[in-house]
Specification:
CATH architecture of one domain: Alpha-Beta Complex
CATH superfamily of one domain: Amidase signature (AS) domain
Structural class: alpha/beta
Number of strands: 11
Strand content: 5-15%
Length: 482
């Protein structure tokens, strides 16, 4: 009997290596779960024919060439390119677009023998915090199907939570891996900007986007990260491998023994309309960390409170530029008009949903003549101040902690008519994207709502290139072997 509930990458590898079951048997177990559960959850937009991948992975085991990821079923967010497969970004604009190449992260995982099991639902072009903005219908939370799974990587988080995949890939622009991970009771990793290549990721905000894993445990996130990270000549923003190693070995980045010094930005976590039960859980989490031998100190991050307004200037600006390529002329949807301008208007009007239109309009405005300096440039100045807040904090603390989200998972439709309320779901997650630092969300308990136990998450921040610290504290907090 294959126990998917307690399965990890290491356990799976050991079972496959020992011959307890085959790659086909483990993949079939996950496919069976998808068949039984996904009609209600709608985590997947497409499940792939995996026969060829399974045979290749099994051959790697048979020949003694298997890696830790060989045979691991991985679900992929629908904005990451896999050659020969549809990649739509959950938009009518790209509904029938087939990728002509695979992204760098996908190639690395494929070389390791991973099995890509399907593509997962998401907010259209990664714009949203609930996966309700998908052109193909919303995803539901496996813990309570009347509630959202978070977003924009809600399909990926739900897929792992319902045992439809052992690992899923998402993209994190303002918390789009961590927030749904918290809502679905799993682990979500947002890595240092530039640690994983963005080549093959459909761009939303190019200075903010990062591919990251959603997993059952912290160790699995660490394993997947180790395979995906590294410099890529096809992405000029990736960090050279030597520079990454130098950062981790520098004296400035040495962890303070014996335990970690953990900073709590009180003014941030107490001033953002945080749910009472979330606040109580957060204080209990801090007490748990004290008992584990860590030192807790209050810190100030004076400019971090401006992260959300700054984000909703810089992100729409970058999104407006990135989405300009979807015009009916190059690829994707084409709707004819009377003249060339009509082609553009008809195609973009039919292809983009309400949220992309809203952000494109806002982004075009903040980048327009006469407003660029007042808005977009000002947001970049704020960004530098926020990054400086974190740089100053690392002089005295090893890790910073906040709740991942200000509330438990909310009801489907609860925030769709109030965009500002929806945007506030990212209030704790967006600062690390603005600063480019790594952050991990790990489960930290549950709250009761209408007779259902809903997951909560806590997130740990570390300085650039210090994912190793996050893995250490994440595993210790979660009760995994360190």
């Amino acid at each position: 009997m294959i126990d998917l509930k307690t399965m990890t990458i290491t356990k799976l590898h050991n079972h496959l290596k020992a011959g307890d079951f085959s790659v086909k048997q483990i993949v079939d177990a996950y496919l069976k779960n998808i068949t039984e559960k996904d009609g209600e959850i709608h985590a997947f937009l497409e499940v792939f024919d995996v026969a060829e991948q399974v045979a290749r992975a099994q051959k790697m085991f048979d020949e003694g060439k298997a890696t830790l990821l060989t045979g691991v079923p991985i679900a992929v967010k629908d904005n990451i390119l896999i050659e020969g497969h549809t990649v739509s970004a959950a938009s009518k604009m790209l509904e029938n677009y087939v990728a002509t190449y695979s992204g760098t992260a996908i190639k690395k995982l494929a070389d390791a023998g991973a099995v890509f099991i399907g593509r997962t639902n998401m907010d259209e072009f990664a714009m949203g915090s609930s996966t309700e903005n998908s052109a193909f219908g919303p995803t539901k939370n496996p813990y309570d199907t009347s509630r959202v799974p978070g977003g924009s990587s809600g399909g990926s988080a739900a897929a792992v939570a319902m045992d439809g995949a052992l690992v899923a890939l998402g993209s994190d622009t303002a918390g789009s891996v961590r927030q749904p991970a918290a809502f679905c009771g799993v682990v979500g990793l947002k890595t240092t900007y530039g640690s994983i290549s963005r080549h093959g990721l459909i761009a939303l905000g190019s200075s903010l986007d990062q591919i990251g894993p959603v997993t059952k445990c912290v160790e699995d996130a660490e394993i997947v990260f180790s395979f995906m990270k590294g410099h890529d000549p096809l992405d000029s923003t990736t960090i050279p491998d030597a520079a990454y190693a130098d950062k981790q070995n520098s004296k400035m980045c040495q962890v303070r023994p014996p335990g970690l010094t953990i900073g709590v930005p009180r003014s941030l976590v107490e001033g953002q309309g945080i749910d009472t039960d979330v606040r109580k859980n957060f204080e209990e989490t801090i007490e748990r960390l004290k008992k584990l031998g860590h030192k807790i100190v209050d810190i100030e991050l004076p400019h971090v409170k401006y992260s959300l307004p700054a984000y909703y200037i810089m992100l729409p600006g970058e999104a407006s530029s990135n989405l300009a390529r979807f015009d009916g002329m190059k690829y994707g949807l084409y709707v004819g008009g009377e003249k060339l301008l009509g082609d553009y208007l008809e195609t973009r009007g039919a292809g983009f949903g309400p949220e992309p239109r809203r952000r494109i309009l806002l982004g075009t405005y903040v980048l327009s003549s006469g407003y660029y300096d007042a808005f977009y440039n000002k947001s970049q100045e704020v960004r530098r101040l926020i990054a400086k807040d974190f740089e100053d904090a690392w002089q005295t603390v090893d890790v910073i902690i906040t709740p991942t989200t200000p509330t438990p998972p909310f009801k489907l439709g609860e925030k769709t008519q109030d965009p500002v309320s929806m945007y506030l779901a990212d209030v704790f997650t967006v600062p690390s994207n603005i600063a480019g630092i790594p952050t991990i969300s790990v489960p930290c308990g549950t709250v009761e709502r209408e007779g259902k136990s809903l997951p909560l998450g806590v997130q740990f921040f570390a300085s650039h290139c210090r994912e190793d610290i996050l893995f250490k504290i994440g595993k210790q907090f979660s009760g995994e072997a360190v």
